[in-house]
Amino acid sequence: MTTTTGVLPPPVQQEFSEKMLSTPMPRLVHNLFAIPRTIDGNAGKTLRMRRYNRLLTAPVPVDPLFMNPPAQLLTAIDIDATVNWYSTYVVITREVTAINEDPVLNQAAARLGQSLRETEDELMRSMLESTAAFINCVGGTNGDNPTNPTAADFEGVVTALQNSDAEFIGEVVEGENKFGTGPVRDSYFCMASTRLIPSLQSMTGFISKAQYPSQLNILSAEWGSVNNVRFVLSSRGSITPTSSLLGADVYNMFVTGQESYTSVQLDGESAKFIYHPPGLNNLKSTTYVDAQVQAKFSLIDSEAYGESYGNEAQAEATMLLAA
Q1: Is the pTM of this model over 0.70?
Q2: Is 160 in the same domain as 247?
Q3: Is there a single domain that holds both residue 196 and residue 223?
Q4: How does pLDDT run across 45-55, given as a tens digit for each residue?
Q5: Both 148 and 245 in a single domain?
């Protein structure tokens, strides 16, 4: 008797692995160096941050009569950060939870948590793209504008930051008598795309993090350093498509010092997952799910806390799930 796979029972035709494949998680680097600030609960949705400007120096001595010198005007700059809200949700039918061996609800909650963190990183990246002053790389050899990055380009960036009195973030890593290692200078940190790995490693003077004399206080996303800049890379790094002189993609690199940008959170609030069982039909709002299907689905809801970045109001993602 001949038996084909078409007549075999379903349990024989397939086997479900109890060990699920992992979902790739990008390195989220754009919040690493933000200074956290908090809006007090029930105090409004806007945080005003103030920075007082420097006063002029007074290099001339007072006259013999000790008359008051000319007065100066005390000035300040105000930056407002306003909370916004973001949300997403997943719809999963009752049938799936009844017949699927895979714990679908657990996976939905985990994926929504990942989506929240990736959204937070993306919002911060967008803020940096819109507010940062930029310097084009010009020292490369690819004939484009901007060119591929070189050590000389980063020297120009470091000089600009030093002229603005920006403080370093990373402390010096002193050289040791270890084969193949080299000292690392006081450093600013650069957030960039992983697509720049070939260009970075080909730069003169580039030191891989494996060549640091000490492996203490090294970030998992860190790739290496050149001169006074250390690099943290992510597959979600900033890219401006087809915007170079020759139509190539431009990879934006954010070089930051201490207290150069901030993230603002609403005090006492955080993301919450709220599960509503199947058959829920008493929801009054149709903001997320149409009223006609509310009776057929269960919901996992999450209320998020507002979060702002720099002068652009942003928020952690609010998650609304359905199962």
Answers
A1: yes
A2: yes
A3: yes
A4: 888 989 999 99
A5: yes
